[in-house]
Amino acid sequence: MIERCTVEKDIYLPRMATLEKKRLMNPTEMYLRLTLDDNDGFDFIPGQFVEVSIAGIGEAPVTISSSPTQKGYFELVVRKIGNVTNAIHRMRIGDKVGIRGPFGKGTYPVEPAKGRNIVFVCGGIGLVPQRSFVNYILDKRADYGEMSVLLGTKCMSQRFFHSELDAWSHRKDMHFMESVDQADDCWLGNVGVVTTLIPKIKTDLGSAMFFICGPPIMYKFVLLALDEERVPHENIYLNLERKMKCGVGKCGHCQINHTYTCMTGPVFRYSDLNVTPEAI
After folding, report:
1. How many CB atoms lie within 10 A of CB 97?
2. What would you measure as the largest C-alpha separation in the chain, in angstroms?
3. How many angstroms from the chain centroid is the CA of residue 197?
């Protein structure tokens, strides 16, 4: 059982961390492995995020991609889209960053999901935050039911975690299916958007728990597909991390009516969002 963790008393004061490993996984995504310098532990729940700061430049929210079962370090994947993330991509092994968090009260339902069949629907970089819970389940495999992971990517060049995806595809205790929107001569798998994989799931969809993360347009069509399969809305969870900025409900960037994504989320049960359709 994962104990719900608490953040530092001073939520504005970052802890220093050292970059141990990095690798460019595709033209825009950088993998980072970090360790905290104070060795004071780092407990989190799948779905939580940290604020990564670069002195003199700024900070950005990034969801933790590694499983809590991995101790002594944590992993992030950062997309190069602005000043802070560009600076992160330029970092060298041994460089320091500031880390605030972990933040987010809306996490993946680690305990309620035990014994249930689970389906992850990931669109492109939406694999990153879901990977934390996927690998947690694989490390605690006996605690959960059948697991399916669906991944849709725009094209071959945007794929990442190649060796890990290959390992998933050969495991007997999970079902991994992948599709690309734009195929080439090297791709022998499914072609089309990620929703084309949903009818191929062998698990009973009506009783499964669904976890969805990807670009905004994907949510609309995945939810329509799940409605056709009569999946109850209370069994669907959405990750809305893309809306976040400060992490502590001060900037208003992630505000959805009375809800702050960084405080209440970033993972929400779909049935709780029915009254705020603009959230999706």
Report:
1. 22
2. 54
3. 20
Q: Helices marked H in the chain — which ranges? A: 83-89, 127-139, 162-170, 216-228, 261-264
CATH of domain 118-279: 3.40.50.80
Cα 149 from Cα 210, distance rounded (Å): 10
pTM comes to 0.91
CA 170 – CA 31 distance, rounded (Å): 23
- Residue-wise pLDDT for 17-49, tens only, equals 999 999 999 999 999 999 999 988 789 999 999
Q: How far apart are CA 49 and CA 34, in angstroms?
A: 14
Closest residue by Cα to residue 195 from 168, 224, 167: 224
Q: How far is CA 182 from the centre of its chain?
A: 23
Does the 15-103 domain belong in CATH 2.40.30.10? Answer: yes
- What's the burial of 277, exposed, middle or buried (CB within 10 Å: 0-12/13-18/19+)? exposed
CB 50 within 8 A of CB 99: yes
Distance CA 190, CA 17 (A): 40
